[in-house]
Amino acid sequence: MATMEDHATRWFNVQSVPHSYTFPLEKRPGKLPFSTCTAIPIINLNSPEKSDTIQKIIKAGQNFVFFQVIDHGVSESVSTEALNVLKELFNMPLEEISRDAIKNGWVHMGSTSFDIDGVHLWRDNIKHPCHPLEKCMQHWPQMPTRYREVMATYVQEIRRLSWRILELICEGLGLEKGFFEEISQVQFLSASNYPACPDPSVTLGVLKHFDHSFITILFQGNVDGLQALHDGKWIGVGVLPNAFVVNIGTQLEIMSNGKLISAEHRVMTNSDEDRLTITTFINPSPNCIVEPAKVLINESNPPLYDSFMYKDFVVSSKAFGPYTEVVQTKD
Ligand SMILES: O=C(O)CCC(=O)C(=O)O
Ligand SMILES: [Fe+2]
After folding, report:
1. Structural domain includes residue 277
2. Cβ distance 13 to 7 under 8 Å?
3. How far is the CA of 22 from the centre of ligand 1 (A)?
4. Model confidence pLDDT, tens digit, residues 174-188
5. Is 263 in the pocket of ligand 1 (CB under 6 A)?
6. pLDDT tens digits along 45-62
7. CATH number of the structural domain spanning residue 68
8. What residues make up the domain containing 239?
């Protein structure tokens, strides 16, 4: 357990944002308050009208890129327990977290491990692969002691949910059933703790980026912070109790030949409370050839993207930086 003393000396326990966390003017979010965009689609996955659900997902992927799913079949206690155990983990003394990460082979990125153009992000982060479970679990945190049990339930539920969504997308795009099965065997988890920040206008939890996944499933608890770039403006993907945020990744944009679009997004901090989130990426397998699906290509719909092997892209773009080896299970 973290002691009071340990907490008081942590990097975020400061009266003002240190220079090393202050972004250059053009990257700062500025003083605008976080405002939730009410137009972001909310999709009920349990609706009896399946074709209606599919249509809503495809439309959301074309227009808003992010959407939220409700009545998704993941019980609230599973997600809440996952957040609780992560909170315990992030509260442990830093040396203990680092020791566990080194011993078991998962990634711990304390805020100072990130250095983007010389500036740190306002977050602590952990990452590890999740699939196949039997192979991955031994490389997860050992502490808190119930971490593996709680997170195993969570990641399995999220895998089921992501399958459901990918199958609906297949149907909506006109791809054969199970199109993504073989090619999306990589799932990894990235959990972030964004402590309350004395001045959210000068720093960010995550800088603007695309997710290089097929889809990303985010549980953001009950604190706002996520913004997506839409028509050149930052829009807030506000918290909806027990909902998951779904984001179309760049690799699905390519496979769909641009029928679905991936959006840049970023994370703002806030001055009132800590924010803890769990991101699950469903990624192409390393040997997957990423290219517009053949059935979507014809004379009037030429391919809009070149084809490449996912692992070559990951290496050449440094998509996962120093932690490529860990999140990209080898074939
Ligand atoms: O924490 C969030 O709200 C989103 C994080 C994110 O965009 C990512 O991990 O790629
Ligand atoms: Fe992201």
Report:
1. yes
2. yes
3. 19
4. 999 999 998 998 999
5. no
6. 999 999 999 999 999 999
7. 2.60.120.330
8. 20-329
